[in-house]
UniProtKB/TrEMBL annotation:
The lineage of its organism: Bacteria, Bacillati, Bacillota, Clostridia, Eubacteriales. Coiled coil: none annotated. GO terms for cellular component: cytoplasm. This is Putative metal chaperone YciC. It comes from Clostridium luticellarii. Residues 4-180 form the CobW/HypB/UreG nucleotide-binding domain. PANTHER family: COBW DOMAIN-CONTAINING PROTEIN, COBW-RELATED.
């Protein structure tokens, strides 16, 4: 199983981008839907994102009432074991809560995960609210960005060019190594970006 973990603050665009990636995988990689499983982690009792994703015919597993980077880390390992046993999909896409540190999830999986071939972390940055969020919760936002193998600056349709450049400069400073993309989940994401995401999983 290849894992793609989507991190990024509340409302940054994770679910929208997971929908786009799932469709790319199902349409272009001659996969059937059993090859893609999505794990939704939400802190609240009522899942909203899983309903959106299920509506599109995708397989979704829920991990609610806690965060998989801390309280629910063992539940994540157990869920992945169960998914492997029952479906053994090629791709497992994980949506973290907006408050998660993706690097902590990676550490747990490196230590306790089984049957995992590769793990890639994609951090989604809310381009529109970046300035506000980095002022209010700097440690979380910086760490989420630093943990990404790839960083997507999303909602570029809502941000002026000059401000976008400032966001890009900050992101680069927090994570000089990540592959960085500017995009908008509201319009079709370039296939080249999804090809890069799954490139080394083929
Ligand atoms: N204009 C614009 N809106 C976007 C974009 N991406 C997401 N949105 C909207 O932003 C809101 C949040 O998007 P989601 O995809 O639900 O974000 P999320 O990160 O999954 O949110 P949580 O799961 O609540 O943390 C939704 O209303 C989306 O339609 C974008 O690129 N441009
Ligand atoms: Mg979501």
């Amino acid at each position: 199983m290849n894992l793609i973990i989507f991190g990024g603050f509340l409302g940054s665009g994770k679910t929208s981008l997971i929908l786009s990636l799932s469709h790319f995988l199902l349409e272009n990689k001659s996969s059937d839907s059993s090859n893609v499983v999505i794990i939704e982690n939400e802190v609240g009792k009522i899942g909203v994102d899983d309903k959106i994703l299920r509506y599109d015919g995708l397989s979704v597993r829920e991990l609610f009432s806690g965060c998989i980077c801390c309280q629910l880390s063992s539940d994540l390992v157990i869920t992945l074991d169960d998914i492997h046993e029952k479906m053994n999909p090629k791709w497992v896409i994980i949506e973290t809560t907006g408050l998660a540190y993706p690097g902590k999830i990676l550490s747990t999986l490196n230590e306790y995960g089984r049957n995992i071939d590769r793990i890639k972390i994609i951090t989604v940055v809310d381009g529109e609210r970046f300035k506000e969020l980095i002022a209010v919760t700097p440690v979380l936002i910086k760490n989420q960005i630093a943990d990404g193998d790839m960083v997507f600056i999303n909602k570029t349709d809502l941000v002026m060019k000059e401000e976008l450049k400032q966001v890009e400069d900050h992101v680069r400073k927090f994570n000089p190594k990540a592959s960085l993309h500017m995009l908008s989940a509201n319009t079709k994401v370039d296939d080249a970006i999804w090809k890069e995401v799954i490139g080394n999983y083929e």
